[in-house]
Amino acid sequence: MFSNFTKDLIENHIIMGDYEIENKTVKEIKINNYVAFETESKFIYKETPGIFYQIVILGPLSTISFYCTDYTPQKKYNELYKKTAKTIKFKD
Predict the structure, then answer these.
(1) What is the pLDDT of residues 21-55, one digit of tens each?
(2) Cβ(41)–Cβ(31) under 8 Å?
(3) Measured between alpha carbons, how far apart are the two ends of the chain, in Å?
(4) Which DSSP letter does residue 71 get?
(5) How far apart are CA 6 and CA 45, in angstroms?
(6) Angle formed at CA 5 by CA 38 and CA 42, multiple of 5 degrees
(7) CB neighbours (10 Å) of residue 14?
């Protein structure tokens, strides 16, 4: 049930707004033994190219959504966003 809701959350975010998105694939992965859904894509927003990264992590009692955009020409922050997302843990 939660996984469908989570995937819908990501997919709805992707299709909303004035974005021209290249990739709309959502992958199921594991982060710190939690199920997570991840997507990233190049996009254009108001004629400005960028890249976005989003991950939604399903915890035992809650969900964390982490969304980042990078407008730098080198897309240097995107890898940092990914590394940060992989460190997220739920408090016991």
Answers:
(1) 777 778 899 999 999 998 888 888 888 888 888 89
(2) no
(3) 22
(4) -
(5) 24
(6) 30
(7) 19
Query: How much is the pTM?
Result: 0.76
Please state the domain extents for the chain. Answer: 2-85
Query: Residue 18 is encoded by which pair of tokens?
Result: 């004035």
Report the b/e string of 3-12 with b at 16+ CB within 10 A.
eeebeebbee
| Domain 2-85: assigned CATH number | 3.40.1000.10
Please provide residue 13's backbone torsions phi and psi, each rounded to the nearest 5 degrees: -65, -40
**17: region left, alpha or beta (phi > 0 left; psi from -120 to 50 alpha):** left
Other CB atoms closer than 10 Å to residue 55's CB: what's the count?
Answer: 26
**Assigned token pair, 60:** 């035992």
Give the CA dihedral 64, 70, 74, 78, nearest 10 degrees.
0
